């Protein structure tokens, strides 16, 4: 079969146009507002470019994109033994972003993985220095301590750790029951203290009232009669009450005077 004739004069310009297009595609790069390009010239660091339209010479220059947005990273659950020898599982979340693209690419191989591993070890180290009650009650303080340590250690990587939040502190069932018993005992102790304080205040008021009543003998009689009036309002029961000797003495004196008048 005869071969198909090829027009070499037409093929050459097409190849040139395709080559030029490929070069232009590789030459111009577009970086978004939150991206930066770390440029290497023949393997050596040259500059950081972006955002917008930048020129990267193929083969001679290479570019590595860096995202400057805040990264939300979940720290896997870590087994931690507290200072009072209680085993717990703790997980957290950290918020960080790249502030120096050059350091993030040159000073560390993978800044995301490095930050994750450092967060895990720091979480175990910091929480292991505190007791269980501090983990449960002082999370803000622990969050601040972990954030400061991570921020200082990742500064050489061009990373800024803005926040750390401890999400969960998981306890085993036996420890949960022990904490419940402790809380119950604490509530019982407070109830006894409040009851004792009430008894103390009541005794002080009774002593004060007794001193005032003792200063005036007739006040005791009036109080006695008032009590009888309150008791007599309930007619469903029989009431036996003692007679004060002061009233009996007055009655005996009256009867004696009456007998003397009769004899006369």
TrEMBL record:
<feature type="domain" description="Band 7">
    <location>
        <begin position="26"/>
        <end position="183"/>
    </location>
</feature>
<dbReference type="InterPro" id="IPR001107">
    <property type="entry name" value="Band_7"/>
</dbReference>
<protein>
    <recommendedName>
        <fullName>Band 7 domain-containing protein</fullName>
    </recommendedName>
</protein>
<dbReference type="InterPro" id="IPR043202">
    <property type="entry name" value="Band-7_stomatin-like"/>
</dbReference>
<dbReference type="InterPro" id="IPR036013">
    <property type="entry name" value="Band_7/SPFH_dom_sf"/>
</dbReference>
<comment type="similarity">
    <text>Belongs to the band 7/mec-2 family.</text>
</comment>
<dbReference type="GO" id="GO:0098552">
    <property type="term" value="C:side of membrane"/>
</dbReference>
<dbReference type="InterPro" id="IPR001972">
    <property type="entry name" value="Stomatin_HflK_fam"/>
</dbReference>
<dbReference type="GO" id="GO:0005886">
    <property type="term" value="C:plasma membrane"/>
</dbReference>
<keyword id="KW-0472">Membrane</keyword>
<keyword id="KW-1133">Transmembrane helix</keyword>
<feature type="transmembrane region" description="Helical">
    <location>
        <begin position="12"/>
        <end position="31"/>
    </location>
</feature>
<keyword id="KW-0812">Transmembrane</keyword>
<dbReference type="Pfam" id="PF01145">
    <property type="entry name" value="Band_7"/>
</dbReference>
